[in-house]
């Protein structure tokens, strides 16, 4: 630790003021803001990542981050905050948290984790911003649609042909039956029955 004092000449007299009797630098850290903030938005989520600069290696793994994002046209006062669950410099925003067709802007800051006892820091300044927008749900391409229609066309065509063939077969049977009913031969029922009876008798005699 250190003792920090302020000494100066005031109105012709030297004065010394003890500002911090015991000052421990590791308990008063303020980091530089993250940089290289980038984003990639899809139809299901938005991934945001960044990097840190001028941070000692023994602090990198105990950092915590806070992401702030909002609609581009809104004020930062009503922005939403998200905290990553780990010390990795990245975070994801689910698509359900974003409105379709709306541009968003985000920024991030960092400090030493509050769960750390050996070091303590205040929040850094906010980083530069990144702008992103949720991607629309991809539509079915024309190629896939055409392929689907072709696959459906074959069984539908076969089914239609079988249906027409079956109907034509039934229609032909009905036509033959109706034709037999209006046949001129049936206008003489007695002669036809006598002729049929003679054929049956003849066949019986021949046997």
From TrEMBL:
Cite the GO molecular-function annotations of the record.
Answer: cytokine receptor activity
Q: Where in the cell is it found?
A: Membrane
**What range(s) does the Fibronectin type-III domain occupy?**
33-135
Membrane topology type, per the record? Single-pass type I membrane protein
Q: Which UniProt keywords apply?
A: Glycoprotein, Membrane, Receptor, Signal, Transmembrane, Transmembrane helix
Segments traversing the membrane: none
**Gene Ontology terms: biological process:** immunoglobulin mediated immune response
A single Gene Ontology CC annotation of this entry is: external side of plasma membrane
Question: Which InterPro entries does the UniProt record give?
Answer: FN3_dom, FN3_sf, Hempt_rcpt_S_F1_CS, Ig-like_fold
SUPFAM superfamilies in alphabetical order: Fibronectin type III
This chain's protein is named Interleukin-9 receptor
